[in-house]
């Protein structure tokens, strides 16, 4: 009886549904003080004067930090360079204002209300300069794009374009997106008498990486970073917006050290738009060249996104184009245009999200030019091997995703003529797109402990960002140990637990899972070794390596399952309260021997190791096919998504319930991206015009139709011993393009700028 | 900021007379958002939620008096039969949680041009009962909306109730939004047929500084409809009606939609709702004849 593959309900479901799960902001603290941010109201200029005297004199105020009195803070090492930060420029260090929303003062008081009131009493005068707004200025290449050079070339795409029988040249645009998790970011920092720092974080960014960030920011030597504890038990969504170190994480620790009291900072919804990154707007020029049969000879994908004085994060739009289709000549380029805004960051399906909108829309336009079925066009360009790295895939079930999806959706009923399908007054459109995502394996350690009562505790420093890690990892450990999942408790989100990389880039299952499995098998083997040496054990004399788990906490001889021992009995006879083992996965052998759960760990070397899990022999991607039906009101231009079918190859499905939850969520993000999500910036002031959930529209239940999710559920034989790839972000990819393609099919109108609005579909 | 909590309406009126700049708050679905966004900082809030009589409605001889504190959810549940237009508009307000708290009185008090119930109140000839320590006066909806977020209340007045006739004929309401729920109207439209008076009420929302009657459209349609021997409408009538409704609007471009789109959409909503309402009327006539 195995648990992996079964729809075990979330172990934290009841806690969350009943409001008893304790999120970071809910944690009670003695002697707690409360902080608020005061943010710049201009996008560019200098602080001519700042007067905090009235705030300092206000009731309950304990501390007001401005650039005039704040402790000196170092520039942070960028994540791309092995550090923990996207914004490398620290807050409150000079009088410059580089973007609207930059922190200009940090106020701490006895209550949040007092702090908020005091912040209003601070008078700031600015020397304002005209900000750079929009992607209009000079473009420049970033240093790196996801660790790769900004330009990618194979073959000679320009020449192949010139020779192509059919070409499509189009420009696509996507707007600024914000992560908008329901839970606002929260940091609670407290120092103990021995100089130890404890930070409770609503952190997607991985507690170990944040520890290094705190050490760096606070001038604590790396060898002493073990004195910093970061805890993050529950997360109310992150989507990239709670990754990495930002000034909002650092300032509470700075203030807490000055005050000798714990400091809590919880952002307002509006501050979330300027304090933790966002997805850059993009302009993407796509040029495709094909022969008359639709075989791609050339693709040029040129992407421009936002550059910032605060750090550098190019949206890696063209990277999906480099690997998705069998095309001999491909050029992908990334450029930045500097604006007076904060630094962008990873946002749900970074790169692949907006990149696939451009690529998969352009493919649909090419299919139209060729009078070819869009699905057939994709099949004709199916990449049997990774064309970017010229090596085999570890697994690729995309062809089956296409066929299964087409079958479930009823793609064959599609009349190719745009505007030809109707249901009453509604125009009906079918659209499809390919999904692919480069989920990662990050270095992860786990410790599994079997206790005297036969139950097990698994510890790993990862954070459950809402995906179901607590549940799924208990299942993985339960199967490896041969116990019920209910007998396993998974504990996470604490630097006291074995090292884990941040659960970003859909890496949770495929990084944590194998580590948990390895540790569970190791501890099981240790118990077996105890048993085979124990004369009282039915396993006495057997080869420990061949002892099998037969369920119910029993270990049996390989040759005779009737002769078994149990964890409980073995431990009792050995007089042991527990037995435990720690194992790592995704790490080089030398790290296994030295990395400990509490040692600080440099992120850079781990990153370099993790990006080469197969020593360059195989490429691993998550694949899928998205099929969408839309209904368009021809008089009002209103678009409704009426059906979605998503079929995905994510390797083995560890838990179909939590995996489906991820897929439905991802598709819903895709619907939002296609039809409503957008942050608008004032063209002259350079400020966001509606930093709230009334202006930033996300899909409601009424916008999300029945979604049919299907997983091939085929273990990847090479990626890891569990055969699991990634699921979190894949289902976002391609949905916006599939919707735009369906809208075109319904109306004959091609929208190349997201979100798709009704006005463009009229007339 | 003072938080005033009267237990009776009389107390509330006395407090409002004493402190005219106190902002009344019932469901808080508008006021709290404005406070949160720092759009305003009133010296006092006047909490009306303890006043039971504001949450009551009554019907006498087909005339309904709906207390200003009756939440949308109860209008939908309890008054859908008698005030179908108001119930339709109420269904489009916010989320279930918002509909449990938000009130028509609040919609009127805020007087946002995008308030969902305004076109229905205009089309249905609602009368607003305004009260103060000085007494009570009745303000027709058509005279209530003065400008963007400005209404005809005196500083010492509170909205006691809204008076409406139980729908004398078919009513319809339609709204275009940027998503399917929890959304501020891009534009909205309400129509009410008054067959006994051979009259039509029609009004637009979110398409001018105030919600307003589409007077020319109302007059045109009243003349075109054959009330005594109802028959299916000509497309040309629907089209002309739509044009006149669009002409009644003076919308702006904003993040939710352009002025041109709003005018276009209003014409579409007007044609459609007229079609539905007249169909409803035809159905009734047929049933009554049969």
Automatic annotation (TrEMBL), chain A:
UniProt-listed SMART domains: Ald_Xan_dh_C
Domain Aldehyde oxidase/xanthine dehydrogenase a/b hammerhead: 18-130
Top-level taxon in the UniProt lineage: Bacteria
PANTHER family, per database record: ALDEHYDE OXIDASE 1-RELATED (PTHR11908:SF132), XANTHINE DEHYDROGENASE (PTHR11908)
GO molecular function annotations of the record: iron ion binding; oxidoreductase activity
Cited InterPro entries: Ald_Oxase/Xan_DH_a/b, Ald_Oxase/Xan_DH_a/b_sf, Ald_Oxase/xanthine_DH-like, AldOxase/xan_DH_MoCoBD1, AldOxase/xan_DH_MoCoBD2, AldOxase/xan_DH_Mopterin-bd_sf
Protein name (database record): Xanthine dehydrogenase molybdenum binding subunit apoprotein
Organism: Umezawaea tangerina
Keywords, in A-Z order: Molybdenum, Oxidoreductase
UniProtKB/TrEMBL annotation, chain B:
Signal peptide annotation: none
Keyword Ribosomal protein annotated: no
Pfam families: CO_deh_flav_C, FAD_binding_5
Record GO terms (molecular function): FAD binding; oxidoreductase activity
FAD-binding PCMH-type domain boundaries: 1-169
Coiled coil: none
Alphabetical keyword list: FAD, Flavoprotein, Oxidoreductase
Protein name, per record: CO/xanthine dehydrogenase FAD-binding subunit
Species in which this protein is naturally found: Umezawaea tangerina
């Amino acid at each position: 009886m195995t648990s992996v593959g079964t729809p075990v309900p979330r172990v934290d479901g009841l806690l969350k549904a009943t409001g008893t799960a304790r999120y970071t902001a809910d944690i009670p603290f003695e002697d707690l003080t409360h902080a608020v941010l005061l943010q710049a109201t201009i996008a560019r200029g200098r602080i001519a004067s700042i007067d905090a005297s009235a705030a300092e004199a206000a009731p309950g105020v304990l501390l007001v930090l401005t650039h005039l009195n704040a402790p000196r803070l170092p520039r942070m090492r960028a994540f791309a360079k092995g550090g923990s930060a996207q914004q490398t420029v620290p807050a409150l260090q000079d009088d410059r204002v580089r973007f609207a929303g930059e922190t200009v003062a940090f106020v701490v008081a006895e209550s949040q209300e007092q702090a908020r009131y005091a912040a209003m009493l601070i008078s700031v005068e600015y020397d304002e300069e005209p900000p750079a707004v929009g992607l209009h200025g000079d473009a420049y290449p970033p240093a790196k794009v996801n660790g790769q050079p900004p330009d990618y070339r194979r073959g000679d795409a320009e020449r192949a374009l010139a020779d192509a029988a059919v070409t499509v040249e189009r420009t696509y645009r996507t707007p600024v997106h914000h992560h908008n998790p329901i839970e606002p970011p929260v940091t609670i920092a407290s120092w103990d008498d021995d100089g130890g720092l404890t930070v409770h974080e609503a952190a997607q960014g991985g507690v170990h990486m944040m520890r290094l960030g705190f050490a760096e920011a606070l001038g604590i030597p790396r060898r002493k970073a073990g004195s910093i504890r970061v805890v993050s038990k529950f997360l109310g969504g992150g989507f990239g917006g709670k990754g990495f170190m930002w000034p909002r994480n650092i300032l509470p620790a700075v203030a807490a050290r000055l005050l000798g009291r714990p400091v809590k900072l919880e952002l307002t919804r509006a501050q979330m738009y300027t304090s933790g990154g966002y997805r850059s707007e993009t302009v993407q020029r796509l040029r495709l060249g094909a022969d008359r049969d639709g075989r791609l000879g050339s693709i040029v994908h040129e992407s421009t996104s936002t550059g910032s004085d605060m750090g550098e994060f190019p949206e890696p739009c063209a990277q999906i184009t480099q690997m998705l289709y069998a095309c001999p000549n491909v050029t992908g380029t990334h450029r930045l245009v500097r604006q007076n805004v904060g630094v962008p960051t990873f946002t749900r399906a970074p790169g692949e999200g907006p990149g696939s909108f451009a690529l998969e829309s352009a493919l649909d336009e090419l299919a139209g030019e060729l009078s070819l079925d869009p699905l057939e066009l994709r099949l004709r360009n199916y990449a049997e091997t990774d064309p970017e790295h010229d090596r085999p895939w570890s697994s690729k079930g995309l062809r089956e995703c296409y066929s299964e999806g087409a079958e479930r959706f009823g793609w064959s009923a599609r009349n190719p003529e745009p505007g030809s399908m109707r249901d009453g007054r509604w125009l009906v459109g079918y659209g499809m797109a390919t999904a692919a995502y480069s989920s990662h394996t990050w270095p992860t350690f786990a410790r599994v402990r079997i206790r005297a009562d036969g139950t097990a505790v698994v510890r790993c420093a990862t954070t459950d960002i809402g995906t179901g890690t607590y549940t799924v990892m208990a299942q993985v450990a339960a199967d490896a140990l041969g116990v019920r999942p209910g007998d396993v408790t998974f504990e996470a989100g604490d630097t006291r637990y074995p090292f884990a990389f941040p659960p970003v880039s859909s890496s949770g299952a495929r990084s944590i899972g194998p580590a948990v499995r390895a540790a569970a098998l190791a501890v099981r083997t240790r118990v077996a070794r105890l048993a085979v040496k124990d004369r009282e054990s039915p396993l006495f004399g057997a080869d420990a390596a061949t002892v099998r788990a037969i369920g119910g906490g029993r270990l049996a001889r390989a040759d005779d399952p009737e002769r078994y021992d149990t964890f409980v009995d073995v431990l009792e006879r050995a007089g042991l309260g527990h037995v435990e083992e720690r194992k790592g996965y995704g790490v080089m052998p030398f790290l296994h021997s030295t990395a400990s759960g509490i040692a600080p760990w440099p992120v850079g070397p781990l990153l370099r190791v993790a990006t080469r899990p197969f020593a360059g022999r195989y490429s691993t991607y998550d694949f899928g096919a998205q099929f969408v039906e839309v209904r368009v009101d021809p008089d009002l231009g209103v678009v409704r998504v009426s059906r979605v079918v998503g079929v995905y190859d994510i390797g083995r499905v560890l838990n179909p319930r939590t995996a489906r939850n991820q897929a439905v969520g991802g598709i819903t993000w895709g619907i939002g991206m296609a039809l409503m999500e957008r942050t608008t910036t004032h063209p002259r002031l350079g400020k966001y015009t509606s930093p709230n959930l009334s202006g930033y529209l996300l899909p409601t239940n009424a916008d999300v139709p029945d979604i049919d999710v299907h997983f091939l559920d085929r273990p990847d034989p090479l990626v890891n011993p569990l055969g699991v790839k990634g699921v979190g972000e894949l289902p976002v990819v391609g949905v916006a393009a599939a919707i735009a393609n369906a809208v075109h099919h319904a109306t004959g109108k091609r929208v190349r700028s997201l979100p798709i609005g009704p006005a463009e579909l009229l007339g | 900021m003072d938080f005033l909590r009267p237990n009776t309406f009389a107390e509330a009126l006395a407090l409002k007379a004493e402190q005219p700049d106190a902002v009344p708050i019932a469901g808080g679905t508008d006021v709290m958002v404005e406070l949160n966004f720092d759009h305003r900082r009133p010296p006092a809030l006047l909490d009306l939620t303890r006043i039971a009589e504001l949450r009551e409605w009554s019907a006498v001889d087909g005339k309904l008096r709906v207390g200003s504190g009756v939440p949308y959810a109860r209008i939908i549940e309890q008054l859908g039969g008698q005030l179908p237009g108001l119930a339709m508009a109420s269904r489009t307000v916010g989320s279930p949680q918002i509909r449990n708290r938000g009130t028509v009185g609040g919609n009127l008090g805020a007087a946002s041009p995008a308030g969902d119930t305004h076109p229905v109140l205009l089309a249905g000839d609602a009368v607003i009962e305004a009260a103060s320590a000085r007494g009570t006066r009745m303000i027709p909806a058509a005279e209530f909306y003065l400008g963007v977020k400005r209404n005809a209340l005196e500083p010492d007045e509170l909205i006691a109730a809204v008076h409406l006739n139980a729908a004398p004929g078919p009513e319809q309401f339609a709204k275009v939004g940027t998503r399917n729920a929890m959304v501020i109207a891009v534009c909205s439209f309400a129509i009410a047929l008054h067959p006994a008076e051979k009259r039509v009420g029609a009004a637009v929302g979110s398409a001018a500084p105030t919600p307003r009657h589409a007077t020319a459209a109302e007059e045109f349609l009243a003349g075109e409809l054959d009330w005594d021997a109802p028959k299916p409408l000509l497309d040309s009538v629907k089209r002309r009606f739509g044009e006149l409704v669009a002409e009644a609007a003076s919308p702006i471009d904003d993040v939710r939609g352009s002025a041109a789109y709003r005018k276009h959409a209003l014409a579409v909503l007007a044609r459609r709702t007229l079609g539905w309402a007249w169909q409803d009327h035809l159905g009734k006539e047929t049933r009554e004849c049969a």
